[in-house]
Design brief:
Blueprint lengths: L6 E3 L6 E3 L11 E4 L1 H12 L4 H8 L3 H20 L3 E4 L4 E3 L5 H4 L2
Parallel strand pairs: 1-5, 3-4
Antiparallel strand pairs: 2-4
């Protein structure tokens, strides 16, 4: 299997876990959304960007974004329909650091 290309993300989710409160913690299952899946959903669904634009921002091919979004949306749907927690972690990503104003002027 070919190694995955690094995906560039701007929004670092930190440690995030979303869980339904209607189910006891000891009976709760979960799904894991990778950071690149989180970023692709954020860019495509929250910011309304086209897949080509998302691919450009994350520095991967558009078909890769299509697969990432398909996987992420299936996980989110599974969590919502089947009352599961969503944890965001992992993936082959690099976080884009915001440059300070004086660094941009150099």
């Amino acid at each position: 299997m070919r190694p995955k290309k690094t995906r560039w993300v701007k929004c670092e989710p930190g440690e995030r876990c979303f869980r339904p409160q209607c189910k006891p913690l000891n009976k709760l299952k979960g799904v894991t959304l990778t950071i690149d899946e989180f970023e692709a959903v954020r860019l495509a669904d929250l910011e309304g960007l086209e897949q080509e634009q998302v691919a450009h921002k994350m520095k991967v091919h558009r078909s890769t974004i299509s697969r990432i979004l398909e996987s992420a949306r299936a996980k989110v749907a599974d969590a919502l329909v089947n009352i599961k927690a969503i944890r965001i972690e992992g993936g082959c990503c690099e976080i884009i650091q915001k440059r300070k104003k004086n660094e941009r002027e150099k």
